[in-house]
Amino acid sequence: MFYLLFPASPRPLIQRRHHFWESQKWADSRPKRWSQRSCSKVSSISRSRYLLYEGYRMLTPFAIPQFNGDPVLILPPSYMKDIITRSDLDVSLPLVAEHNTAARYTGDEYIVRNPVHVDLVKRQLNRHLKCLTADIADELTLGFLEQWGSGQYKSVPLYTSCMKIVSRGANRVFCGADLCRCRNPNFLEHSRRYTQNIFAAAALINLAPAWLRPMISPFATYPASRQLEYCKAIAVPLIETRLKAAHGAFISQNDALQWLIEDCIKRGDAVELDPVMLCRRLLRLNMAAIHTTSISITNAILDLYTSPETTRFVGGLREECERTLAAHGGVWNKEGIDALVRTDSAIKESMRLRSFGLIGTNRIITNPCGLDLDGKIHIPFGVQVATPIDAIHRDATFYERPEVYDAFRFSQSRFANQVYHHGPDGSRPSQSTPDLTTTSDTFLVFGHGRHACPGRFFASQEMKLMLAHVVLNYEVEIKGPRPENRDIGTASLPDNTVQIAVRPRR
Ligand code: HEM
Predict the structure, then answer these.
(1) Is the pLDDT assigned to residue 22 strictly greater than 90?
(2) Which one of 227, 344, 389, 421 is at 20 to 30 Å from 39 when CA atoms are compared?
(3) Residue with CA nearest ligand 1 atom 39
(4) From the alpha carbon of 118, which atom of ligand 1 is closest?
C-alpha cells in the first residue's frame, strides 16, 4: 500500500515502518516469517472481529493484519480525539478512500483528490434538506410500491429491494426525477453495479503485490468501466441539456446536479463543468450513499422484526408515526421527521450493534515527520490508524446490556441527555438532544470529528422515512432467528440472500 500511496518514497522510510510494526503490540502474536504473515493476513478475512475484541481489552494501541493491505494500528478511544481533530496535513481520510477504491487504477484519482462532491454535500445538500423531504418521501413510496407491492402477501429479497428503494430516494435528490425514474430507470441499475464492481476491483487489486497491480488492474476494472460507459451513455445527454439551460433561462430544478452546475458556473470551473466529470461526480455520490444506507436500513429491519419484543417495538413505532403524520396534515416534512424519536432510536440502536465497519475513523498519517500521540507513542508517516468502533459500541462501560437490541434505548433517555453539537451545515454549535446524526466518542458509525460523514443528515431522513413507511404500510414476517451478518475482514454485512414475507396492511 505504501507504494500505491507514496510511490516515490525513499527506502529508509519503509524500513522505519517495518521497525515500527515489529515494535507494536499485536492482537495476536506478530508472525515472524513472511509465510506466517501471509497466512495471518488471509485468516484476518474471518478473524478480524475476534482480534479486535482481544486487542480492545489491552487498553493500548495494537496492530491487526489486513488481508488486502498493510496492517492497521488500532487506537483506544482515549487517543481518538487527538487524531480526529488533527489537520489534513497531519492525517488524511481521502487517502484511505483512495486506497479502498483503488482510485489510481479506476481513473478516479482526480475525483478523490478534488473533493468537490464532499463540499456539495456539506454546503448544499444539508442546506436544502428541509425542502426536499416531500420529494424523497414521494420517491420512496414509489420504490416500495415497485419492490414490496400493494396487493397480497409477497416474498421479497430484503437487501436488494432496500438497495433499489434507497437508490431511488437518493438519486431523486442527486439528479432529479429525470434520471432516477422517468427517462431511464437503467441509470440507477448501472450506477449500483458500477459501485459494486469498483469495490470488487479494488479488493482484487489491493490483494496483489504493488508491482503486479498495473498489470491486473485493466482486467479487474473492466466490469466497472463497462458500467461507467452505460451510465455515461444515459446521463451525459441529459447533463448536456442541463448545461445549455443553465447558461440561459430560469431553471426550476432543485437537485445536487443543478447546484453543482451552478456552483461551477459561478467559479468558472471548466474542468468540473465537463459532462463526463459531472456524471462521475454523481457516481461518486452514489458510491458514498447507497450501500451504506442500504446496509443500515436492512439491519434495522432485521433487528426490529426478529427481536423477542417485536410486537411492543412495532406497536410503539406505529403509534408514533401515525400520531406524527396526522399532526402534520398527512404529509411528511422535516419537522415531522425530527419528531420521530422512537424511529430514530430504533435505527440508531441497530447501527450501534451492527455497524458495517468493525473499525472506523480510519486515517493515514500524512505528516512527513510522523505523529506523537499523548507523548506515549510515535506513529510514522504512511501508517493507517483506526478505532475499534464495534468493540466500543458493545462495551458495558458505555451501554447497559450492550448485546441486547433495545429499539427504544435512545428515545427513553433522549431528553435526559442534552448535548451541544454542530448544525448540519457546520454552523455554530447549538444545544440539542443527541439523535442518530450526533456523533460522539461512543457512537461512531458516521465517524467523528472534522471528517464525520456529511451525508448523515440526509441518510437519517431517508432511513426514518423508510422505516416509518414499513411500519405504517406493511406486516413483515421473518422466520427463525436473526440471520447472522457476514464478516469480511473489518466489514460486517447483512446476508444479501435473506427473503422476508411482506403483506400490505388494510
Ligand atoms: C447510513 C448511511 C451512511 C453511513 C453509515 C456513512 C458512514 C460514513 C463514514 C463512517 C464516513 C467516514 C467518516 C470518518 O472517518 O470520520 C463517511 C464519509 C462520507 N460520507 Fe457517509 N455514510 C452514510 C451515508 C452517506 C450519504 C447518504 C452520503 C451522501 C449524500 C454520504 C457522503 C459521505 C461523504 C462525501 C464522506 C466523506 C467526508 C469527508 O471526506 O470529509 N454518506 N460516511
Answers:
(1) no
(2) 389
(3) 451
(4) 35
CA atoms of 52 and 63, how far apart (whole Å): 9
Phi-psi group of 47: left, alpha or beta (phi > 0 → left; psi -120 to 50 → alpha; rest → beta): alpha
182 belongs to an annotated ligand binding site: no
Ligand 1 neighbour 354 (Cβ under 6 A) = no
C-alpha–C-alpha distance, residues 197 and 60, integer Å:
37
pLDDT in tens, 94-140: 999 988 888 999 888 999 999 999 999 999 999 999 999 999 999 99
- Is 377 close to ligand 1, i.e. is its CB under 6 Å away? no
Q: Is residue 502 within a helix (H) or strand (E), and if so which, with residue range?
A: strand 499-504
Q: Which atom of ligand 1 is nearest to the CA of 459?
A: 27
Q: Do residues 129 and 458 make contact, with C-beta atoms less than 8 angstroms apart?
A: yes
The pick from 353, 366, 390, 446 for probing ligand 1's pocket by mutation, whose C-beta has the most ligand atoms within 8 angstroms, reads 446
Instruction: Read off the pLDDT band of 422 (50, 70, 90).
Output: very low
Q: Of 98, 113, 167, 292, which is best to mutate to test ligand 1, by the most ligand atoms within 8 angstroms of its C-beta?
A: 292
Nearest Cα to 162, choosing from 390, 466, 441, 473? 466
Residue-range domain boundaries for the chain? 9-101+360-387, 102-357+388-413+433-504
pLDDT at residue 13, rounded to an integer: 52
Q: Given the DSSP bridges, would you call strands 69-74 and 62-66 parallel, antiparallel or unpaired?
A: antiparallel
Reported as a single tens digit per residue, the pLDDT across 463-472 is 999 999 999 9
Average pLDDT, the chain: 88
Nearest residue CA, atom 27 of ligand 1? 289
Question: Which tens digits make up the pLDDT trace of 264-283?
Answer: 999 999 999 999 999 999 99
CATH hierarchy code of domain 102-357+388-413+433-504: 1.10.630.10
| Dihedral of the alpha carbons of 443, 47, 67, 287, in degrees to the nearest 10 | -40
> How many angstroms does the Cα of residue 16 sit away from the middle of ligand 1?
33
pLDDT at site 446: 97
Cα 389 from Cα 53, distance rounded (Å):
10
Nearest-CA residue for atom 24 of ligand 1: 289
pTM of the model: 0.91
- Distance, in Å, from the CA atom of 97 to the CA atom of 103, rounded to the nearest integer, reads 8
d(CA 112, CA 101): 10
Question: In whole angstroms, how large is the CA radius of gyration of the chain?
Answer: 23
CB 93 less than 6 A from any atom of ligand 1: yes
* Ligand 1 centroid – CA 288 distance (Å): 6
pLDDT band at 506 (very low <50, low <70, confident <90, very high): confident
436 CB less than 6 Å from ligand 1? Answer: no
